[in-house]
Design goal:
heterotrimer; A mainly alpha (about 280); B mainly alpha (about 250); C alpha/beta (about 350); A: about 280 residues; two-stranded antiparallel ribbon; about 0% strand; C: about 350 residues; 13 helices
C-alpha cells in the first residue's frame, strides 16, 4: 500500500468515529421532535426545517455572515503585516510566534472579561480618556456591534497570523529583491509580489477565521450584551434554555450546508484559477 | 518599509497583550473593581488554597499536550496524503468539523459516548476529553500544514525518489524538515485550541475531569473575581518562562 | 508511534481506575458557589470519605449529563421545576426518611412543597426570588416592574438574560400570570419587551453585579442572591425591591440519582446538609436564602434580617412559583425571546 494510504488512515478512523457518527446523530435529531423537557423523541418530522423558513431566522443568518465577513477582513488586514514581520525577522521567529500565541493560552473567557473591564463606562479606557480631558461623558464602547467585532478580531488573530506566516516563511527573498531591482516601490512589491505568493496562507487563514466566527456565541453574548442574536447564539439557546434540540440541530445543519457550499465554491474557483 | 513593519509589530503585540497586562496589574489590586485600592497578594493566596484549581490545571495540561501531539502527528500525515492525492471526502469532512458550532459537536459527542457506554458501563473521563479534542484539532493542523505544503514543489520529493530513497525516507528526510516551521505553527494552534476549549470539554468531561476553562468559567459567570486575573497572570508567566527556556535550548 | 503509546497508556490508566478506591467515594454535582469553603472538607473528615465535588451553571448542562442514567454522579441539585421531568425519565431515587431525621429542620414552607408534598424525592436546599436592584441615587426608589420602563434609565439599566424571568417581568407588568401560555397574552408581553429594549443596556445575569457596584448600571433585574452580594459591597448606594406586581420564586433541591450505588452515603450527605450549622454556614457564605428553618438561628443578625434574602411574609405573599410549561408553550416563548433579542 502506498504511504499516503497509511497516512490518511488515522484521520479516517478518527473522523469516522468521532465526527461522522456524531454528525449522523445530529442529522437524525434534526428530523425528530423535541422532548418535553429537552432531548429528542419520535415522531420523525420535517417541522424543524419548515420553521427555518422565517424572515426572523434568515435575517439572523445574514447578520452572522456579514459580521463574520467583516471580522475576517479586519483580521487579515491586521494579521498580514505581523506575519510578514515575523517571517522576515532574522532571528527569534519562534519567539515572536509564541508571543503571538501567549495571550491565547489564558482562558478565552478571561480575555473577554478583560475587554469588558477595559471598555465599560467606568472601565479603564473611558476613565483614562476622561482623566486627560478628551471626553466628558463615557463613550458607549460596549454592548454593541463594534465591541463584538473587536472581540472577534482579537480572538481570532492568531488563526490568521499562523497560516500566513507558514507560507510567507517559505517566500524566496530573491523575488521581492528582483522586483525592487526592476524599480518597484515597496508598496507595489508587497501588493503584487508578496501577497499573491502567500495566497494559500491567506485563504487558509480566512477559512480558519471566517468559519468559527460564524459559530461564535460567547463573544456576542458577553461583549454584545445579549442584545443581538447571531446564529451561534440561536443554536446555543436551542440546546440550553429553549430545550429544543431538534430545531437547534436543524439550524446547525442549515449553517453547515451554507458554509460548505460557500467554501467549496470558493475553493473550486481558486483551484480553477490555478489550473 | 522594514522600519514601518517594526513599528507596526510593536503596536500589534501591544494590542494583543493589552488585556492581559491590564488583568495582571489588577490582580494585585485588593479591590475587585476598577478603582485601585492597594497592593495585595490576596487573590494569589486564594489560588493555592483551592485544590480544585490545581487539579483542573493539571488536567488541562495533560489533555492539551496529549491532544496536541496526537492531532499534529495525525494531521501532518493526513495533509501529506491529501497533497499526494486529493480526496474531497476527507477534505470535506475536515471542513465540516470546523464549521460545526461547538455546542453541536459537544452534544453530539456526548450522545455518542452515552449511547456507546450504556452497554459497556464505562464513564466519561479525561480520555473522552482527549478524544474529542483531537477530533476537532485535526482540521486546524491539516489546514495549516496544507497551506505550507502548497509552497513545496513536488519535484523535491521526486528528486529524492530518483536518488533511490523509499517513499517513507523521502517523507521523513526531505518533506518533513521542509515542513518544520509549519508543523510548529500547527502544533501551537492545536495547543491553543485545546487548552482553551470550554464548551466541548464541559460536555464530555467525566466526574473526575474538570479542566481549567471549566473552573474559570464557573467563577467568571458568578461575577469575575480577581482570582481569575491572578490565575491568568500566573498562566502567562508560566508559559512565558517556558518560551524563554525553549529559546535558550534552541540557541544552544 | 504516539498513538500506540497513548492506547497502551490509556489501558494502563483504565486498569488502575478499575482497582477499588481506598476510601468510600461520593460524587456531588452542584451549582457553583453553593457551599461554604469548608462544607465538603468537613464532611470528608467527619465521615472518612472522599467527595468529588464539581459544579455547573445551568440545569440544562446538568440534565444533559444525567439524562442517560450513566453519568457517575450520585447527588445533583436541580431547580424544582426539573424534578417532575427527572421523575418522568426515571432518574431519581426515593428518599428514605428514616435516614433523614433532620428533615424536621426545614422551614415549614418547605416541608410540603408544591412540587413534592411528601418529600419523597428531594430535600429543598436554597431558594431565592427575582426583583429589582437599584442605585439609591434614583428617587423615588423603584418598587415596580413598570419602573424599569422609565426613560430616565436609558442605557443604564439591564434585564436578566433569561427568557423565563424577563418575559415573566413583562407579563407581570401588564397584570398577567407568570405562567401564561395564551398566545395573545404572550404577544402583549413581547410588545412590552420591545418597547423597553432601547432603554436596556444589556441582558446580563450575575455578571452585572460589579457594574451595579461601580455605578455603571443604575437599575437591574436581578436574582436576590446576586443583589445581596451587590448590596454587601455597597450598602449605602444600593437597594433591592421585590416588585409590587409580583415576582417569581425559585428553589434548588437536592436529589439522589437512581443510578447511584452509594445510596446510604448519599443520604448521610443530605442529612449532613440539613444540619442547622452546616446549612447556616453555606447560606451565609453564598448569600442565598436557605430552606432550613433551624439554620436561621445560627445566621448572623445582618443576614437573618436581610430584607433581600428573607423578605417579610407580606412581601413573600406576592411571590409565585413558576410551573414547568408544556412544549408548545415553551416553543412559543422561545420564538418570542429570539424575536426580542434580535430586533
Amino acid at each position: 500500500m502506498k504511504l499516503r494510504t497509511w497516512f490518511v488512515l488515522p484521520t479516517w478512523v478518527w473522523m469516522a468515529g468521532l465526527f461522522a457518527a456524531p454528525f449522523a446523530i445530529i442529522l437524525g435529531y434534526s428530523f425528530l421532535t423535541r422532548g418535553a423537557y429537552g432531548g429528542v423523541e419520535q415522531p420523525w418530522t420535517m417541522e424543524n426545517y419548515k420553521r427555518l423558513i422565517d424572515p426572523l431566522y434568515l435575517i439572523i443568518l445574514m447578520r452572522s455572515f456579514a459580521m463574520a465577513m467583516v471580522a475576517t477582513v479586519l483580521c487579515l488586514v491586521l494579521a498580514f503585516p505581523a506575519a510578514l514581520f515575523i517571517s522576515q525577522a532574522p532571528k527569534y521567529k519562534n519567539l515572536y510566534l509564541q508571543l503571538v500565541m501567549l495571550p491565547f493560552w489564558t482562558s478565552f473567557l478571561v480575555r473577554t472579561y478583560a475587554w469588558l473591564f477595559l471598555l465599560r463606562d467606568t472601565g479603564l479606557i473611558n476613565t483614562f480618556l476622561e482623566k486627560i480631558g478628551l471626553i466628558h461623558s463615557p463613550l458607549p464602547l460596549l454592548y454593541n456591534n463594534g465591541a463584538v467585532l473587536l472581540g472577534l478580531v482579537y480572538g481570532y488573530l492568531p488563526f490568521m497570523v499562523l497560516p500566513i506566516y507558514a507560507t510567507l516563511e517559505r517566500l524566496d527573498p530573491s523575488l521581492p529583491e528582483a522586483a525592487a531591482d526592476l524599480g518597484a516601490r515597496p508598496w507595489t512589491t508587497l501588493l503584487r509580489v508578496i501577497v499573491p505568493l502567500s495566497r494559500s496562507g491567506i485563504i487558509a487563514g480566512a477559512v480558519l477565521v471566517f468559519i468559527p466566527c460564524l459559530g461564535t456565541y460567547l463573544t456576542s453574548d458577553l461583549l454584545g450584551g445579549g442584545r443581538t442574536v447571531l446564529v451561534g447564539n440561536l443554536v446555543q439557546s436551542q440546546f440550553t434554555t429553549a430545550r429544543d434540540w431538534p430545531f437547534g440541530a436543524a439550524v446547525s445543519m442549515l449553517l453547515m450546508l451554507l458554509v460548505t457550499l460557500l467554501v467549496w465554491g470558493f475553493l473550486r474557483r481558486e483551484s480553477e484559477q490555478l489550473a | 518599509m522594514k522600519r514601518w513593519l517594526g513599528v507596526y509589530a510593536v503596536g500589534f503585540f501591544a494590542f494583543l497583550h493589552l488585556p492581559l497586562i491590564t488583568l495582571a496589574i489588577f490582580s494585585f489590586n485588593s479591590s475587585r473593581f476598577t478603582v485601585w485600592e492597594h497592593f495585595s497578594l490576596d487573590w494569589y493566596r486564594a489560588i493555592f488554597r483551592d485544590p480544585e484549581l490545581v487539579e483542573a490545571t493539571w488536567n488541562s495540561v495533560i489533555v492539551a499536550l496529549a491532544a496536541t501531539v496526537i492531532s499534529t502527528v495525525i494531521g501532518t500525515m493526513c495533509a501529506y496524503a491529501l497533497w499526494k492525492k486529493k480526496s474531497s471526502l476527507v477534505t470535506g469532512t475536515l471542513y465540516l468539523s470546523l464549521v460545526t458550532p461547538e455546542i453541536v459537536t459537544g452534544i453530539s459527542l456526548l450522545a455518542l459516548f452515552q449511547w456507546m457506554f450504556r452497554s459497556l458501563h464505562w464513564h466519561l473521563g479525561l480520555y473522552t476529553v482527549i478524544l474529542a479534542h483531537v477530533a476537532f484539532s485535526i482540521a486546524y493542523v491539516v489546514i495549516v500544514i496544507s497551506a505550507r505544503l502548497r509552497t513545496i514543489s513536488p519535484s523535491l520529493e521526486e528528486a529524492a525518489l530518483d536518488l533511490g530513497a523509499k517513499e517513507w525516507g523521502a517523507f521523513f528526510y526531505v518533506i518533513l524538515p521542509a515542513l518544520g516551521p509549519g508543523i510548529i505553527a500547527a502544533a501551537l494552534l492545536a495547543l491553543t485550541v485545546s487548552f482553551d476549549d470550554y464548551v466541548i470539554t464541559s460536555m464530555v468531561a467525566g466526574v473526575d475531569s474538570q479542566t481549567l476553562p471549566m473552573v474559570i468559567y464557573a467563577m467568571a459567570r458568578r461575577g469575575a473575581s480577581p482570582v481569575i486575573n491572578a490565575i491568568s497572570a500566573l498562566i502567562t508567566v508560566f508559559f512565558g518562562i517556558l518560551i524563554v527556556i525553549s529559546e535558550q535550548v534552541r540557541e544552544a | 508511534m504516539n498513538r500506540r503509546y497513548f492506547l497502551l497508556g490509556m489501558t494502563g490508566v483504565a486498569a488502575l481506575a478499575s482497582c477499588g478506591p481506598s476510601k468510600p467515594r461520593l460524587n456531588v454535582y452542584n451549582w457553583s458557589a453553593y457551599v461554604a469553603p469548608d462544607t465538603i472538607s468537613n464532611f470528608e473528615a467527619e465521615f472518612g470519605v472522599k467527595v468529588r465535588y464539581a459544579t455547573y451553571e445551568s440545569n440544562e448542562e446538568m440534565l444533559a449529563k444525567v439524562i442517560t442514567g450513566n453519568s457517575g454522579w450520585d447527588i445533583v441539585f436541580p431547580t424544582y421545576t426539573r424534578i417532575k421531568p427527572m421523575l418522568d425519565y426515571g432518574l431519581l431515587q426515593t428518599l428514605n426518611h428514616d435516614l433523614l431525621p433532620s428533615l424536621n429542620n426545614l422551614d415549614p414552607r418547605f416541608r410540603k412543597p408544591v412540587w413534592d408534598p411528601e418529600l419523597k424525592w428531594n430535600t429543598p436546599y436554597m431558594w431565592f426570588g427575582t426583583g429589582i436592584a437599584y442605585n439609591k441615587s434614583l428617587q423615588p426608589p423603584l418598587t415596580r416592574w413598570a419602573d424599569l420602563w422609565d426613560s430616565r434609565l436609558k442605557g443604564r439599566m439591564t434585564m436578566l438574560d433569561d427568557p423565563e424571568d424577563m418575559l415573566g417581568a413583562c407579563l407581570k407588568k401588564i397584570g398577567l400570570s407568570f405562567n401564561s401560555t395564551n398566545p395573545a397574552e404572550l404577544e402583549r408581553a413581547k410588545q412590552e419587551a420591545l418597547t423597553q429594549k432601547p432603554l436596556v443596556q444589556a441582558y446580563l445575569n450575575a455578571e452585572v453585579r460589579d457594574q451595579m457596584v461601580s455605578g455603571d448600571v443604575l437599575a437591574a433585574q436581578m436574582w436576590a442572591t446576586t443583589a445581596q452580594q451587590a448590596v454587601d459591597a455597597a450598602p449605602q448606594q444600593l437597594g433591592f425591591a421585590y416588585p409590587q406586581e409580583g415576582f417569581p420564586l425559585y428553589c434548588d433541591c437536592a436529589v439522589i440519582l437512581r443510578e447511584s450505588e452509594r445510596a446510604e452515603l448519599a443520604h448521610k450527605f443530605l442529612e449532613y446538609l440539613l444540619r442547622p450549622k452546616v446549612a447556616a454556614g453555606s447560606a451565609d457564605y453564598t448569600r442565598v436564602a436557605t430552606a432550613n428553618g433551624a439554620a436561621k438561628a445560627f445566621l448572623p443578625d445582618a443576614t437573618r434580617n436581610s430584607p433581600t434574602l428573607y423578605p417579610p411574609q407580606e412581601v413573600l405573599d406576592r411571590g409565585e412559583w413558576p410551573q414547568p410549561l408544556p412544549p408548545a408553550a415553551q416553543s412559543m416563548r422561545d420564538k418570542i425571546w429570539t424575536e426580542i433579542k434580535s430586533s
